[in-house]
Predict the structure.
Amino acid sequence: MPILSALILLTALGGCLVLAVPASRQGLARLIALAAALLVLILTVALFLRFDSGAAEMQFVEHYRWIRAGSIHIDYHVGIDGISLMLILLTAVMTPLAMLGSWKSVQERVKPFFALLLFLQAGIIGVFAALDLMLFYFFWELTLVPMYFLIGIWGYERRIYAAVKFFLYTMAGSLLMLAAIIALYFFNGATTFSLPEIAGNVQQRSLLLPAAVEVPLFLAFFLAFAIKIPIFPLHTWLPDAHVEAPTAGSVLLASILLKMGAYGLIRFCLPLFPRSCIRLAPAIVALALIGIIYGALVAMVQPDLKKLIAYSSVSHLGFVVLGIFSFNNEGLMGANYQMLTHGVTTGALFLLVGILYERRHTRQISDFGGIAHVIPVYSSFFLLTTLASIGLPGLNGFVGEWLVLQGTFLVSPRSAALAATAMILSATYMLWMYQRVFFGNPSDSNRRVPDLKLREYAILVPAAVLMIWMGMYSATFLRRMDTATARIVSDIEAVRQQISPTIYRVSR
Amino acid sequence: MTEFRCLIPETILSLVACAIMLFSPRVRRANSTIPGILCAAGLLFAGGVTLLTWNQRSVAFAGMVRIDEFTQLARLLLFAILFFVSLASVDFLRREQINHREFYSLLLFAAVGASLMVASSDLILTFLGIEVLSISSYILAGFKRDNPRCVEASLKYFLLGAFSTAFLLYGVALLYGETGSTRYATLATRLQGAPNALTLAGLSFILTGFGFKVAMAPFHIWTPDVYEGAPTPISAFLSVGSKAAAFLALLRVLYVALAGMNREWSDVLWLAAVCTMFLGNLAALSQSNIKRLLAYSSIAHAGYTLLGLVSGSRSGVEAVLFYTLAYALMNLGAFTVVQLISRQGDQCTSLDDYRGLGRQHRWLAASLSLFLFSLAGIPATAGFMGKFFLFSAAVEQGLFWLVILAVVNSAVAVYYYIRVVVIMFMHEPDPQQAPIDMPAAAAAVIAVAVAGTLLLGVLPGVVRRAVEAATTALVQ
């Protein structure tokens, strides 16, 4: 059964179905959207269970001819390994939660809102499953359009500015990537856009580009991904987009869209341009470190809850980049895991802020205070998520950051030390924020805030379970990513030995 | 007599055009649709004949006319464009109370001219085709005689157009002076080797003449004024039909007649492509009128199309053919939406008139967004595939810098396209606006354009065989 295509099609059809509901039945539209998202989740869990974590090859592969025109050969080629599997699972989990998060707050134009969420999900699954460079680019760009509308139509005051900025930043980066994809195609002999084939040629040195060609191509890919992650100094679209987006938009943006950038680095940059990656790693690591510390410092002084979380994302995603460019098992595994944990934790934080916003219509930290007494259950969930975000051992955030630090330490203890300071900083800004929002004496306007409702339990309980599960028993998830990670690392290790066998550093 | 077989479609169109002129005075009613229907039927018939004689390959009139797959594909494309323009015009003319039958005759004569241009294999016939097309267009551009802007557009177009065709003719004369012939085949054999001053001057004058028609910088200045002032269906025709005819005829001139001067013209066009893209896109950024915005966008798209010409290869020709098709679909669609929104008097073309359109006219706004996304080059649209083929053709020939500049331009262009989308979907509507009529014919044109834009964006292979056959016929 072509399960990956089924996932993509099902999601997209769900979106069309939502659009087809008569305008007067908005409740029905919501329910259909949620049902579609849950169906996708069930299918994805089936995918997760049927996945063979020992196999080195891509699984659930589907390969059809798609476009043949002159010298152009584009295929519909999808398949997943452990890394893409986990990200698809993350998407499938977060989308229904995001829908529930905007269930009540979106009252206008309900149908297109939920349809766009489903179209967005279809695009994202496509991105994580595509194995053909052009197919990947198709889905990559297609995620842009729904997100643009989600921010621009249902966002807050400065939504138009944020939506346009988001669109232009991403588009500028990805157009250069398109040019690089085309160039790579012709350098590889104009026969295929298939990622495994081109990567195989790179690995066997039958496609050996001179540095003057490889580095610009690498930079074009890297720029597209770096904007999406985002890596300092390309992050400025992120706080705007996060703050202005409706809750569901922020959740999907933080949980999944940012991961597309990091995924792109792992899936495309490392196998296609290993030499450039190794050569430019010091500079990229430096940018990642700046991002980690800068994001944390800026987060500390934010008066707006969403902006604070947005900047904390810049910091957390810096860890992902750091892990990827340590080129060892620990680092890459940590990066993968950090993507998942950040997805769950930050998604949960945005959902929590959304719940609070629905009650008080403000996100300014200074407007709150003392609400721990008023809404104790909500506050407990918030505390759990805060601790997970800080990286408290036993919760999910710890595993990823610890692995990344370990991987980085093997390569460069100094970088690891610098990155570790961010864990202290993150404790500072998160706990300080928690103190200002939840402790103290509640002001009059905060005294009558109601606590969680059933729908909100339905959002927060799964997130909390995941945070604890991923922290306590990470093996469920790590095990399935082992083979894929090891393979990527060994490939790049082989290239490193070709380049400089003498200064090869023993990392274990 | 058998040679006339090659020109059956043109003959049909001319006869229908004359019939409309001669017989429809008998129809007294001012808002009669009969001339429009006749015109559309004539185009359909001509297209059908072209399809039936698809495989006909012949050279007629002592080598002046050449019918092959390239000609047939170009004719089909042009007839289809004109067909949709005439459909969209029917209700427009009645709405604007300028329902004169001459409109349709002129449209048909323009089709004859365009068709002769692409069938021509002799510079003189090419020139004649351009003139037939141009003179009809000059009149059509000023068809609202009582509207000063419209008359201004027509006059501007006429003066500059006459000037540029003079250049073209002079170029033809210079090449004739050097080679003693105006036949493409003879030119091709006699223009081998290093060019001299005479041939270089001839080449640049010819490029000037065509450059004016396709709105290539620095001969693009007329475009925004004329598109803005002309009746909207005619703006659509100028930006799509007239441009497509010129590009297709230029392909044959450059790839067949002037193939020997490949290095010279590709250098010139390289520079022209870059200037055209930048001037078009940068000027479009600050437009507040949708017709001017689309005019500058069409200048920029001429720049992208030039990429295919510059690459000078088979894939270049294929890319230009595909792009012309894609561009015709999305721009025709966009202009038809603009025509509906412009309301009575063809007045509401400011971007402010698009505020909140997504609220009031969901489908109209959604279709226009699709066309704009396609023009911007977002995947799953014809515009993206077209751009992709153009860029690929250029990269294949090692034109990296040209592609990088084109990519930068595409990124700039995204801004002004999505600005319109922002205005339609993210601003509140103005409750004072008059309602929009949705005549069935125009709605059908939009629906076809939407379907085509999506189809070519997802399955560009559907036109592959036709495009490859046409390319083979041209390049050989």
Q: What stands out?
A: Chain B touches chain A through 37 residues (CB under 8 Å). Residues 148-179 of chain B form the longest helix (32 residues). The mean pLDDT of chain B is 90. Residues 2-475 of chain B form one domain.
